[in-house]
Design goal:
Number of strands: 8
Largest sheet: 4 strands, antiparallel
Strand content: 15-25%
Number of helices: 8
Structural class: alpha+beta
Order of helices and strands: HEEEEEEHEEHHHHHH
Distance between the termini: 39 Å
Shape: globular
Strand order of the largest sheet: 1-8-3-6
């Protein structure tokens, strides 16, 4: 059974919120359905990130461009995830990164400030915001640990374990970029792992 827009949005928000508190169903009316084609830029560097997005289908990539124009993947968001600015700098200042649709995307989008105000007005909403922040922080801590303590092969194995769905959907060159290695290095690692498991 396919969930209605309201049920889908509330289901995703509820996955982040504390189940001991009542869900604020009024939130769903602020979301509008949006479809994006593969490759569409959702947010340009220099723009303000002012949307709160619940992803129904597809995936997004956040990435930086360095001074030489090379892309560096910052993170990925997929189906049933919430994509929204969390850090004060991301909310108050223009973004210094891009967000692109890696695949065709179906999502529900609302004005970030309105959603934030509503979430801050209830215990359940505050628990959603806290969970979003905790997940972002946890991901950053885990990624920093991997960069500082794991070799390329261990980083790839960990990525497969932590992101089984995304790892099957992403092009290998993007996985390599995200993990800080060349696609040639990743290809060698994949061959080695295939031989080991055979």
């Amino acid at each position: 059974m396919t969930l209605t827009q309201k049920d889908f949005v509330l289901s995703c928000l509820s996955a982040y919120g504390n189940q001991a508190f009542a869900v604020d169903e009024s939130l769903s009316v602020y979301f509008r359905h949006k479809r994006l084609a593969k490759g569409v830029t959702y947010l340009e560097s220099g723009q303000r990130w002012q949307s709160f997005t619940v992803i129904r289908e597809g995936s997004f990539r956040l990435y930086y461009l360095d001074s030489r124009g090379r892309e560096h993947s910052k993170g990925f968001f997929g189906a049933e995830q919430i994509m929204a600015p969390c850090a004060p700098a991301a909310i108050k200042q223009p973004a210094n990164f891009f967000i692109e649709a890696l695949t065709a995307v179906s999502c529900y989008q609302a004005d970030y400030a309105k959603v934030r105000r509503l979430l801050e007005s209830s215990q359940w909403g505050l628990s959603v915001l806290m969970s979003l922040l905790e997940r972002v922080l946890d991901e950053k801590v885990q990624r920093e640990y991997a960069w500082l303590n794991l070799d390329a092969e261990a980083r790839y194995v960990r990525f497969l374990k932590d992101h089984p769905v995304l790892s099957s959907q992403l092009p290998l060159y993007l996985i390599a970029n995200y993990l800080g290695m060349t696609d040639v290095t990743l290809s060698r690692i994949r061959k080695k792992l295939a031989l080991t498991s055979a």
